[in-house]
């Protein structure tokens, strides 16, 4: 478990919440597996319908819904639905609204997923929940916020980054999607995302999503928009106008809220609640005067000011490379085992803290085996508070599985390989087991350090502390997911099969606060990493104190 020391994102107003141990919003791999399972099930249902002609209407509708939403013409990569943020949100939404009884019936008829000889079974009862849908909505809001995504493009499934020029003009800067997906967000989706942001007291982002909702409904017949009896999930225009006014009111932007309340009142002139909102807004405008200019410019740009680590995350997706050009690469032989096949070290930061990226540390096959071994162990990743207590939080959206050195010979061999590269003892109790992590939709971990503070050590009664982090990237990440060090302005893109190594403590035993780092939200892809933390206990002679107090 990593140690949380800095909680600073605008989309994380609520510090912590109770949640289940795993879910479809906290690990992309769960969505990928569910989608592959559904694909097999659909094939068998089609064959059953052809052979028997006895399928129920519910089964037929289920097949038609899958074909309409998933099996798009010219879009062969099913797993991309789970790795694309809009596709993943739509997938969670569809599955959370699917009747599990239909899938159970389909399983019994086709035999797909039924246990045979100890095989794993897809538990239909574990479909995405309302909590998964809520977290997926917040993930989309978070991604749009941090990466400055154009909202209009996002509703069409396109990831287009915006930038602000020196004169304040906002322009389309970079397109991230490698393919042109056909994922779309409807008005009912955007207003739902706005509602979730509003509930988190993130009123500025709520305003943006309500505005795009009005944009999506522009030009439609009023009966289609306001008559909720026709479509219970479709937002009524009056409802959205009031929500928008309420969000602006929360931001003390009464002058901007007033036109939306007035438009809602014109549509429903007898609505007393809206009348009272108009009267109160007019009163506040009279009291405050014209105080909306600065916020108005900000809303027009639709790019809220970001904090340091969020700026680094934005730059990582925009540049897709580290900002420093003064890097050196070398072959290193830190142990006799590396003489014939030296490690490929790229120095990222020479001074305190020492940071390096080692390329080709593991093979594709080894990475795949680590992912497969950890899959059965995955549980929601916790964070640790100042009193050493673990809790679940939306400051960290991922799932973790621990692989001990004696799990298989492969894991034992990889642990020894880390020892060869670092020159340190990686055997228990001088190092922790591999912590394998899969990130969820928009998965991230806000700035934190890996070492344990003195109060935490005391409460946890630990006899040791972490002196070095060895982080292996087990998968490719198409966009986002970089590791950033805010205090030294360093960006490290996720490079498959490479390992990021940095010091958590100085040779003197003092903490290395500049090692504070963060995992940027994953924009496109399924990010897997494996952490190996090496401890001070048992490494006293392998990493002795330096000659000066600073060391």
From TrEMBL:
EC annotation from Swiss-Prot or TrEMBL: 1.14.11.2
Positions of TPR repeats: 238-271
SUPFAM superfamilies for this protein: TPR-like
Class of this enzyme: oxidoreductase
Top-level lineage group: Eukaryota
Keywords assigned: Dioxygenase, Endoplasmic reticulum, Glycoprotein, Iron, Metal-binding, Oxidoreductase, Signal, TPR repeat, Vitamin C
Signal peptide: 1-18
Cellular compartments per GO CC: endoplasmic reticulum; endoplasmic reticulum lumen
Localization per Swiss-Prot or TrEMBL: Endoplasmic reticulum lumen
Pfam families: 2OG-FeII_Oxy_3, P4Ha_N
Signal in keyword set: yes
Function: Catalyzes the post-translational formation of 4-hydroxyproline in -Xaa-Pro-Gly- sequences in collagens and other proteins.
Family the entry assigns: Belongs to the P4HA family.
Full protein name: procollagen-proline 4-dioxygenase
Organism the protein comes from: Branchiostoma floridae (Florida lancelet)
Taxonomic classification: Eukaryota, Metazoa, Chordata, Cephalochordata, Leptocardii
Gene for this chain: LOC118418942
């Amino acid at each position: 478990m990593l140690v949380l020391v800095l909680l600073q994102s605008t989309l994380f107003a609520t510090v912590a919440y109770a949640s289940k141990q795993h879910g479809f919003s906290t690990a992309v791999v769960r969505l990928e597996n569910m989608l592959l399972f559904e694909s097999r099930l659909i094939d068998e249902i089609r064959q059953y319908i052809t052979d028997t002609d006895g399928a129920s209407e519910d089964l037929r509708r289920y097949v038609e819904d899958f074909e309409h939403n998933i099996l798009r013409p010219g879009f062969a990569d099913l797993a991309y639905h789970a790795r694309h943020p809009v596709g993943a949100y739509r997938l969670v939404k569809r599955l959370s609204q699917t009747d599990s009884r239909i899938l159970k019936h389909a399983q019994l008829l086709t035999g797909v997923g039924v246990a045979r000889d100890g095989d794993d079974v897809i538990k239909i009862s574990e479909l995405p929940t309302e909590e998964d849908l809520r977290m997926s909505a917040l993930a989309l809001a978070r991604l749009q916020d941090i990466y400055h995504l154009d909202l209009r493009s996002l509703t069409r499934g396109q990831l287009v980054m915006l930038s602000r020029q020196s004169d304040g003009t906002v322009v389309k800067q970079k397109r991230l999607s490698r393919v042109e997906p056909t994922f779309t967000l409807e008005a009912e989706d955007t207003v739902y995302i706005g509602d979730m942001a509003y509930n988190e007291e993130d009123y500025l982002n709520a305003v943006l999503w309500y505005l795009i909702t009005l944009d999506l409904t522009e030009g439609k017949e009023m009966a289609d928009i306001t008559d909720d009896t026709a479509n219970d999930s479709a937002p009524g225009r009056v409802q959205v106008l009031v929500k928008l006014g309420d969000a602006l009111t929360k931001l003390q932007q009464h002058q901007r809220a007033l036109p939306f309340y007035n438009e809602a009142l014109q549509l429903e002139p007898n609505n007393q609640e809206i009348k009272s909102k108009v009267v109160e807004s007019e009163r506040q405008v009279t009291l405050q005067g014209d105080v909306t200019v600065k916020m108005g410019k900000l809303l027009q740009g639709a790019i809220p000011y970001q904090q340091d680590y969020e700026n680094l995350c934005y730059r990582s997706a925009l540049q897709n490379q580290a900002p420093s050009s003064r890097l050196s690469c070398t072959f290193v032989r830190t142990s006799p085992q590396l003489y014939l096949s030296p490690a490929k070290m790229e120095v990222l930061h020479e001074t305190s803290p020492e940071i390096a990226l080692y390329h080709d540390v593991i093979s594709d096959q080894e990475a795949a085996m680590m992912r497969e071994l950890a899959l059965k162990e995955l549980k929601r990743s916790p964070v640790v508070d100042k009193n050493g207590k673990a809790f679940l939080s939306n400051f960290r959206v991922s799932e973790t599985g621990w692989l001990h050195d004696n799990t298989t010979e492969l894991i034992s061999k990889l642990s020894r390989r880390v020892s060869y590269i670092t020159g340190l003892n990686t055997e228990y109790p001088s190092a922790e087991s591999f912590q394998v992590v899969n990130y969820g939709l928009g998965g991230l971990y806000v700035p934190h350090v890996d070492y344990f503070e003195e109060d935490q050590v005391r409460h946890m009664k630990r006899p040791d502390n972490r002196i070095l982090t060895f982080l292996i990237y087990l998968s490719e990440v198409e966009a986002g997911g970089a590791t950033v060090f805010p205090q030294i302005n360093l960006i490290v893109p996720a490079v498959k099969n490479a390992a990021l190594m940095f010091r958590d403590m100085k040779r003197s035993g003092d903490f290395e606060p500049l090692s504070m780092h963060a995992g940027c939200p994953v924009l496109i892809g399924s990010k897997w990493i494996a952490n190996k933390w090496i401890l001070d206990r048992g490494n006293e002679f392998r990493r002795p104190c330096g000659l000066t107090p600073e060391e």
